[in-house]
Write a structure and sequence with these properties.
By secondary structure, the chain is of the alpha+beta class. It is built from 14 helices and 23 strands. A hairpin with a 6-residue loop joins strand 4 and strand 5. It is globular. It binds adenosine-5'-triphosphate. Adenosine-5'-triphosphate binds next to strand 10, strand 13, strand 16 and helix 10.
Length: 457
Amino acid sequence: MAEQLNEYQGKATMEKITSLAKRRGFVFQSSEIYGGQNGAWDYGPLGIELKNRIAGAWWKEMTQLNDDIVGLDAAILMHPRTWEASGHVENFTDPLVDCKKCKARFRADMIPEENLAAKKCPECGGELTDTRKFNLMFKTHIGPAEDTASIIYLRPETAQGIYVNYKNIIQSNRMKIPFGIAQIGKAFRNEIVTKNFIFRTCEFEQMEMQFFVKPGSDDEWFNEWRKRRWAYYEKLGVKMDHLRWHQHDKDELAHYAKDAYDVQYLFPMGWRELEGVHNRTNYDLNRHTQFSGKDMQYIDQDNNNERYIPFIIETSAGLTRNVLMILCDAYDEEQVADKGNDDDWRTVLRFHPNLAPVTVAVLPLMKKDGLAELAQDIRRELKEDFATDYDQAGAIGRRYRRQDEAGTPFCVTVDYQSKEDGTVTLRFRDSMEQIRVPKTELTARLRQEIKDYKRIK
Ligand code: ATP
C-alpha cells in the first residue's frame, strides 16, 4: 500500500481543500461562467452554514458572554471624510511594481530584495517599473454626477463604523468605560495579490471588537484581550499547536498602533495572520474630533465628570479567513482499510459539532418497506433542534463517506430492527463507532454528545 501513496496522501493542501470546497458546495468562484472574478468568492449551501456558525460563535463570545460589549451593524458606505480622518486616504497603500515585459504585477514587499534592487522581474527576468504607492480602497461615485464631490469609498475595515457611533452607543445604552462594541460585516480592499483561495480577497468579512478604555489602563487591557482571544480559539476546538503569536516590530506597526500582536495559524502554505490584536491608542477618536469638529471625549460621571479621549484595544479577525482556517484545521484523510483501492481512505472534516453545517444526517438503510417514511419522521423531529440532512441514495457505506466529507458529526441509520423495537443506529464521524439508541432518546443523546465533544484527532 505504502508505495501507492503519493507524498500528499493524508495531508491537507490548498489544492485539495479548494477542490473539496467546490465539490461539496462550500465555496465557488464568483461569476465562474464568465471565467471567474478575481478576489471574490461565493459561499454555497454548506459554506454559508459554516460561515454563519463561525460568526455566531464569535458573536456569542463577544456580546452574550460579555456584559460590557454590545453589537452594531454600521453601513458600508460612510462619509468620505471618515477615511481622511482615519488616515486611509493618505496611508492605506501597498508598494506596487509592474514588469514591463510580462505585465505581471507584484507587491514590492513580497518579492525577493535582490529582484527589487536589480529591478528584475522574479517571473520572466524582464525590467520592473519603479515602486509606486497604490491605495487599496475601492473608490466609486454616489449620485448621478461623477465628479470629485461625489467620491465615496467601500469601507476597507469595519472599525470606523464603530468609532463614529461610539458616542451614540454611550448615550443610547448608557455604557460606561471600559466597554466594547462588536461588529461583523463586509470590508473591501483592492488587493494586488489575491491567491490562496479565500485567504486574501478583495471582498471579505471581518469580525471586529473595539474596546474603549481609560488611558493608562490600555496595556493591561491589551494583555487581557490577548489572553481572551487565545482562550476563544482553544474553546473553538482549533489545533492549538497550529496557532502562535507574532508581535509587530517597529516597521510593521500601523500608523495608529502602539502595540500589535497577530494570531497566526499554520495554513498549508505556512504561518499566516488570522487575527490582529491592536492597541490603537486614542488616535482614531482624536482624528475624528479634529475632522468632524465634534467632541469625542468621554465624561466619567463616577469620577467628578473627568473628561478624556479613551484608548481603544481592537481585536480584528477575518470571518472569511476564519472559514478557511476552520476548513484547513478540520481537514483529514484517514486510512480505514488496506485493500489497495480508493475506498481505503476517507476524507473527513472534523468540525466541532457547534460549527458543522449539518449536525445530524438521517439515513434509511433501504428505501423500501417503510424505512424511508420512518427515517423522514425521525428527521422531522430532529429538525426542531438540529441542522439535519436526509440521504437515501446509494450504499450506506458511501453515504457515510459523503457525510464525513461534509463534516457531519452524527448519522442516524434506520433499519429493519428500528421498525421492531424503535431503536436506531447512531454513528460517530470521528471514531466511526456505531451504537444503538432508542429513537425517543435521540435528541437528548445528541445534545449531550455535542456538549461533551472532544476531538480525537
Ligand atoms: P495583511 O497584512 O494580511 O494584508 P492586515 O494586517 O492589513 O492584513 P488587518 O487590517 O489587521 O489586516 O485586518 C484584520 C483581519 O482582517 C486580518 O487579520 C485578516 O483576518 C482579515 N483580512 C484583512 N485583509 C483581508 C483580505 N484581503 N482578505 C481576507 N481577509 C482579510
